[in-house]
Amino acid sequence: MFLGIDCGTQGLKATAWDPSSREFRVVSQPYTMITGLPPGHQEQHPQIWIDTLIDCVAKLGTLGVDLKRVEGIGISGQQHGFVPLDSAHKVIRPAKLWCDTSTAKQCNFIVDSAGGADKYYQMVGNLLPAGFTASKILWLKENEPDNYSKLQHILLPHDYLNLFLTGETVTEPGDASGTGYFNVRRRIWLPSVLKLIDSSFDLHSCLPRLIESHQPAGRVRSKVATQLGISPQTLVSSGGGDNMMGAIGSGNVSSGVMTVSLGTSGTLYSYQTSPIDDPSGEISCFCDSTGSWLPLACTMNVTTATESIRNSFLGCDFDDFDATVNSIPAGSNGLLMLPYLEGERLPNIPEGTGVLIGLRKETASAAHLSRAVVEGVTLGLNYGLDRFRRLGLTVKEIRLIGGGSRSQAWRQIASDIFKTRVVVPKIEEGPSFGAALQAAWCCSGEPITDLVDKYVELDPASVNEPDLANSQVYEDLSQLYLDLTRNLKESTIFQQHRSLIRHLNQKDK
C-alpha cells in the first residue's frame, strides 16, 4: 500500500492506494491563507501543512486503512513557495506562495542584473514571472533583514514535508524547475543567479540536495512513524511539484497527451522527451518527475474565481452551480470576464484585477456571471494552449483534473473552447494519486510508464467532444478576450487601479 499526499493552496489531500486490489481511499481537509495582508501578498504558515497531513493520515486509519501496510509515501506540493528555515530547521516566517505577486519589482531587478531577459533566459531556460521562488528570497532580504539574517535553508513546500517525514533536506528536478535559479536543461542549481540576489552570502549553501525523481528522499523518522501509525521502514519518494505529480496521476508520461488542471490555479502541461524553447516565457520549460520534461503554462485564477462567484452570488452547491451555468448560452450573451482576481501570470500581469465587459440589463444576473466566469478562466487557459500549438505541439486528447473537472458544464465548455476531446481519469485526485504511483516506482523499481499503463484508467462517462457551433462562438470571444487583455496591459489602467486599492486600504486603516 502507498500513500500520496497533495499539499495544495486551499487544503491537503491524502490518498491510500493498494495496487494489488486497486482500492483507494481519499480524505481531504481544507485550510486557509493568512488574511489581512496587502494586495498581492499570499502567505501560509508551513505548520498548517504538517498538522493537516497528520490529521488526514489519521482519518485514513479511521476509514479502515491498515497504515502498518504502507510501504512508501509520495509528496506532491504547490510549486514555487518559499519556506525559509534557520539552522535548526525552524520556520523563520510564513511561506510566500506561488500566487504571491508582491515581488514583481524583485523579479525585474534580478532579470536586469543578469543583463536582461534574453541573458537570463539563456542562463536558466525560463523567464522569471512573479511567483517563482527567486524573487521571494530577494523580497525577504530587502523587506525583513532580521529574518533574512537567520536564513540557512531554502525549501519548497513539498521539500518541507519531506523534511518533516525524513529529516532530510532534498529536492528533485521537477519542483526545482520553478525556482528561477535552476538550469532546466542541465538539471543543476545556478549559484550565478543566486549571487544576483546576494553577492556577499552563499545562498547556494542554503539549497537542498538534488536527487533523481526515482530516488528516495529517505525513510520516515521513528518519531514521525509512531505519530502517523506507520512503519519506520516506510520509504519516502522524491516527490515533486503538484503539476509533475498530476502528470503522473493522469497518465501524462508519453507524447500527445495534455493535462489541464482546473484547480486554484490553472495549468496545462504535456510530456516531452527534450526541453522546449519559448523565449517569450509564456510556456515554462520544466523538468517532469520521471526524468524527462514537462513544458507548462499556468494561469493564476481558476477555481479561485469560480468559487468567488458561486459563494458570493449564488451560495449554492456544485450541482446547482452546474445547472445555472448550463442555463445560459455559449458566450453568456456577450458578458465577458477577465478573471484576474489575484493578478495574472499568463499573460504576465501581476498588477491585474478582474474585469467585466458587456454588463447590460440583459446580462446583469448571477446566472450570466456564473457562466462568464467559467468561460473567462477557460479562455485564459486557451491562451496557453494556443501558445503550445504555435510552438509545434500536437495535442490529441486533453485530460482534465482538479475540482473543476467534476463539472459536466465546465467539461463541455472546455471541449468547445479547446476544440479538443476532453476526458477525466477514473481516479480524479491526479497529484495525490501521482505521488502514490511515484512512491510505488521508488519502492518497486518497476518503470513508471508500466505503472501508469497498468493503473491509470479513464472514465468513459466523462468524455466530451467539441460542439462546432459553440466553438465558433468561443473563437470570436477569444479574440475579444485577447484584444481587451492586450489593451489593458499596454495601458497603465491596472497599475493605477492597484494604487487606488492601496490608497483606499490605507485610508480605511
What does this structure look like?
The protein is built from 18 helices and 23 strands. It has 509 residues and is an alpha/beta fold. Strands 1, 2, 3, 5, 13, 14 and 15 form a seven-stranded mixed beta sheet that branches. β2 (11-18) and β3 (23-30) form a beta hairpin. α10 (242-249) packs across α15, α12 packs across α13 (366-390) and α13 (366-390) packs across α14 (408-418). The relative contact order is 0.13.
Keywords, please?
Nucleotidyltransferase, domain 5, 18 helices, alpha/beta, 509 residues, 7-stranded mixed beta sheet, globular
Topology:
Blueprint: E1 2-7, E2 11-18, E3 23-30, E4 43-44, H1 47-62, E5 72-77, E6 83-85, E7 95-96, H2 104-113, H3 117-124, H4 133-143, H5 145-149, E8 153-155, H6 157-166, E9 170-171, H7 173-176, E10 182-183, E11 188-189, H8 191-197, E12 209-210, E13 216-219, H9 222-228, E14 235-237, E15 240-241, H10 242-249, E16 257-262, E17 266-269, E18 296-299, H11 303-314, H12 318-326, E19 336-338, E20 355-357, H13 366-390, E21 397-401, H14 408-418, E22 422-425, H15 430-444, H16 448-455, E23 458-464, H17 468-490, H18 493-508
Parallel strand pairs: 1-5, 5-14, 5-15, 9-12, 16-21, 21-22
Antiparallel strand pairs: 1-2, 2-3, 4-7, 6-8, 10-11, 13-14, 16-17, 17-18, 19-20, 22-23
Helix pairs in contact: 2-4, 10-15, 11-13, 12-13, 13-14, 13-17, 14-17
